[in-house]
Amino acid sequence: MPAFRQNNTVDWVTGDTYGLDIPAHPDALLKSGAAFLNRAFQHAASIHATGNASRSIESILDSQIIHAGSTGTKLLLTVEIAAATSRKKQRLFVKFSRDFSNEIRDASRQQMALEIRFAQLSQLPQFPIVVPTCYFADFQHRTGTGLMITECIPYGEGDVEPQRPKAMDYRLGDSLPYYRALIRNLARLAAASKNGSLRDEVERQFPFQPEQLDVGPRRALQPGQLEQNVDRYAQFCKTYPGLIPAHLRSAEFLARFRRQACQFQHHQPHIHALLQSEPDMIALCHWNAHVDNAWFWREPSGALECGLLDWGNVSQMNVAMALWGCLSGAELDLWNEHLDGLLHLFIATYQAGCGVQLDIEQLKRHLNLYMGSMGLSWLLRGPIRTLSGLEGLNAASTRTDPIIERNEPARSQLHLMQVFLNHWSHSDMAV
Q1: Class of domain 169-426
Q2: 325, 312 contact by CB (below 8 A)
Q3: What is the CATH number that goes with domain 12-151?
Q4: Model pLDDT for residues 17-56, shown as the tens digit of each residue
Q5: CA quadruple 230, 231, 237, 243: dihedral positive or negative?
Q6: Could you state, in order of their start, the residue ranges of all structural domains in the chain?
Q7: DSSP codes of every residue in 288-328
Q8: For residues 36 and 29, what is the distance between their CA atoms, to the nearest angstrom?
């Protein structure tokens, strides 16, 4: 077991839902072993989603701690299950809200509160999409400490494709079917949250609270700071030209971007109000449906389908935010050639599910406004700071170099910055 504990580590807290003591980190869970898992499943009345109390976990056979993603620690478990006449192995995925080894990741611990509510919502029979089966989840709001135990997605086994890494779609070949599957599922969930009995539960559990949609606090830009950020980007282009496509580092684009960005920033209060002003565009959504937050399989017809996971910060939001959260992982060619088709797919699926027909020009405008607002506030600062700190980066470096590919934050932030600037270069960003 790697040492990752710090002085502020708590071992156990009492969950708010079941009143059960729950472990705050992998070490605490593993020391308790099967005893905690059995107590948890019994409290949740979900013994492996069967309710069959004759089945119990005899022991934990194997475990693997994972420090991946942007929030708490993860743990993969292989357990031995004893039934009435047999024993079998099962894999479980445990997600903790806390990561005591990383202050930045630990700061996002409150995101799990919404994820746990969503796990409970997903158990309703009218829930419209595939998500991992949740066996137990609880959370202590006071400290932001909680965990979820779900099925472990069998990537690369049977009909399930291998896990697709974030910001490496150039390895997919034809990525369009993957994004069509993702967009369909985003629209199905959004539509269900506007229609029927699920709507009332969504309004109760996930009221629209736009002030809570940011995944972390962002400092407002100070006077002159945006211009400084654009200048730093221009200098980054000169220092590392291999990381930036030629059309995004040309003198013409840089001059236009600087001028338009300052005009755009001046209208931020109006943009913020506009993105909250259309009730038909506010729905329950996954905010970051990149390919690494999904699993894919082929239906007998050959059609690609997917399930969605990692629901931290799930909320009602402007659907344009969810579309950016999904499509920002896609390659520039997909944006340039297939954006309209994917937006039409979202509109058609959404209308089929709830009867609301969105206007594509309005949807594109909201997408541009959300992308521009978020991009100017973060995607000119964070990626450049991250990439500039990489040892060994030079003018000849490209996004497919090992120094980039092996570093998920670096390759992801570089890709997001490219997508943001590429779409800006092709769009009318006038407010």
Answers
A1: alpha beta
A2: no
A3: 3.30.200
A4: 999 999 999 999 999 999 999 999 988 864 434 444 446 8
A5: negative
A6: 12-151, 169-426
A7: ---GGGEEEEE-TTS-EEEEE---TT-EEEEHHHHHHHHHT
A8: 7
